[in-house]
Amino acid sequence: MGITPFSFRTLGLMLAGLVFSSSAFAQDGEKKDKDYLVLHGSIQSDILMPEVDKKIGTGTYKDDILTNTYAELTLSSKHFEVGGRFEFLEHPLPGFENDFKGWGVPHIYAKYNSGKGIEVTLGDVYDQFGSGLIFRTYEERSLGIDNAIRGGRVSISALKGVRFKALGGVQRRYWDWDTDSWVAGTDLEIDINQYSQKMRDNNVSWTIGGSYVLLNYEKNDQIIVPGTNYELNMPSNVNAFDVRSSLTVGNYNILAEYAWRSQDPSFDNGNIYRRGSAVLLSASYSSKGVSALIQAKRSENMSFRSDRSITGISGFINNMPAFAYQHTYSLPALYPYATQAAPGEWAFQGEFGYNFKRHTALGGKYGTKMKLNISHIRGLEKTPVEPVNGTMMGTDGYETSFFKTGELYYQDINVQMEKKLSKSFKLNLMYMNQKYNKTVIEGEGGMVKSNIAVAEGKYQINKKFTLRSELQYLWTNQDQGDWAFGLVELSALPYLMFTLSDMWNTGETNQHYYMGSVTATYKAHRLMLGYGRTRAGYNCSGGVCRYVPASKGLNISYNFTF
User: What's the Cα-to-Cα distance from 378 to each of 441, 462, 487, rounded to whole Å?
Assistant: First the structure.
């Protein structure tokens, strides 16, 4: 391909040239006061000094200190920007695969911005086309995701209401790059309202867009059909398209998006040759005191990776958004939903919020905020095709009817209330009914049905001290049974915060997952010291989940931004 995975010497010379050019430009007489170098950076270090705890199943540790540490630097001027990130994961935190182990500078880039709508980036690129149905590269450290494209990108917005992007390169996977394949893509968006004064006068905004992604395999894996001498003819090129339209009229917005992907037999889909597709519809309304959202998504066989032989959460070129509420409370997040991209799903979500005004029967003295959220996700009803040589490999795998749904994957119905009872006390309440198909999402365990209640209170003692507490309870007859959770947190502005919490399985195990921490903040520095247990489970963000094993020990987290 001509792109090596770690060509830092060449790229470093290029960056140095850009910095020199930027510095020289700053010496120009007319621009000297407007174009100068600015250095930004950040450090994030999460450390665990682990202890073996057989009661919660931590296992043993080879290292006394485990850490995920990142340091970023960005040097920018009016037209140029260069940046890089150093990562130290030689002894990674629990839950990060062995492939994570290593250290170095895996992310580096140089960017030129003309100031007139033209931007060129060389190096590692993050981007997203539309909702990400066919292309999304991003970093999510809590999950260990970094699927940046190493290559180049050109963005053009010089024409009124038109945004165009083109990019290409190889994809990062842990400490390597999938050089046996390369990715290229283009994206175009047009704001129709920029060409209609009448639309702008009536507060109407209409954007249409389209994307194309090409995945080329320079080396195809040899796949032999079991029990035969036949070898699958693996496509060298995989094509994906996306079209979308977003219309906003006053307080209303409607989004429609359709994505399609050509044949891509992989480990995820059992090496079948069925094409992938996704349809997304969303409608929302928002005004003072009222909000509503309803959306639906049908996806089928849309697992899209730069390496068709791998599993897990790495190597994805795209991202299928989860139509499930992202909970922040501990027990509602105990059974999080992971998007089922390969088999496909029908996903529905509705959310309605209303603020009862002050000095009304339901609003009281300070008003009341209510929110209702419903998520319902099911599989697709499939009819298997006739096997060939006793296997589905090499066939279309199955047939589907577009509107028919299969078994229940996930359901979440929750209602939340925020109520200020006095000038110094605020109460949040939530009730949630959940159905979680553990067999589909995790591989085994059946359907887990639960009810969850949450009460959170925040008391403003004075201008400096705030006391916050949580009480949560989860009822279920499945899995490990009931759970209880309690938390007390004292904030001492502007520097300190003290937290004590315990998650207690009152059902099968009777184990306590206690945690105590102190957090100190000073200017751009943030330091947290904590000690306790962490339950084994799934950490999720946007429908992507990573399994994290149980752990115990001293936790240290440091963040600094400048």
Answer: 12, 49, 34
Strand partners for 455? 429, 471
How far apart CA 120 and CA 130 sit, in angstroms, is 20
Q: How far apart (Å, rounded) are the C-alpha atoms in residues 73 and 470?
A: 38
> Of 438, 437, 381, which Cα lies nearest the Cα of 406?
381
Q: Look up residue 197 and give its DSSP letter.
A: H
Give the Cα-Cα-Cα angle 413, 335, 51 (nearest 5 degrees): 150
User: In 3-state terms, what secondary structure has residue 24?
Assistant: helix
Nearest Cα neighbor of 286 from 354, 204, 349 is: 354
* Alpha carbon distance 272, 268 (integer Å): 9
Joined tokens for residue 394: 């090499």
The low-confidence residues of the chain, meaning pLDDT below 70, are: 1-35
Q: Are 292 and 284 in contact (CB under 8 A)?
A: yes
Q: What are the residues whose beta carbons fall under 8 Å from the beta carbon of 200, sequence distance 6 or more?
A: 193
* Token pair in block for residue 45: 């270090």
pLDDT at 34: 60
Give yes or no for a contact between 182 and 3, defined as CB atoms under 8 angstroms apart: yes
Q: From CA 346, how far away is CA 154, in angstroms rounded?
A: 35
Q: Are 110 and 122 in contact (CB under 8 A)?
A: yes
Taking alpha carbons only, the member of 346, 325, 344 closest to residue 336 is: 325
Please give the single-letter amino acid code of residue 467.
Answer: L
Rounded to 5 degrees, φ, ψ at 98 are -60, -30
Residue type for 540, please? C
CA dist 349 and 333 (Å) reads 17
**In angstroms, rounded to a whole number, what is the distance separating the alpha carbons of residues 345 and 340?**
7
Residues 6+ apart with CB under 8 A from 141: 44, 68, 70
Task: Compute the distance between CA of residue 450 and CA of residue 470 in angstroms, rounded to an integer.
Answer: 19
Give pLDDT, residue 226: 82
Query: Tokens 């290593």 identify what position?
Result: 102
Rounded CA-CA distance 138/145 in Å is: 7
DSSP SS3 for 442: helix
Q: Residue 296: exposed, middle, or buried by beta-carbon count in 10 A (0-12, 13-18, 19+)?
A: middle
Cα–Cα distance for residue pair 522/520, rounded to 1 Å: 7
DSSP 91: S
CA distance 543 to 140: 12
pLDDT, tens digit (0-9, with 9 covering 90-100), for 290-324: 999 999 999 999 999 999 988 888 899 999 999 99
The H or E element that residue 438 is part of is helix 438-442
For 403, the 3-state DSSP assignment is strand
Asked whether the bond before 494 is cis by omega within 30 degrees of 0, the reply is yes
- CB neighbour list of residue 34: distance below 8 Å, 6 or more residues apart: 78
Give the per-residue pLDDT at 223: 86
pLDDT at 229: 80
Among candidates 301, 302, 333, which has minimal Cα distance to 319?
302
The whole-number pLDDT of residue 98 equals 79
pLDDT for the residue 28:
43
Q: 59's torsion region: left (phi>0), alpha (psi -120 to 50) or beta?
A: left
Instruction: Give the span between the Cα atoms of 32 and 226, in whole angstroms.
Output: 70
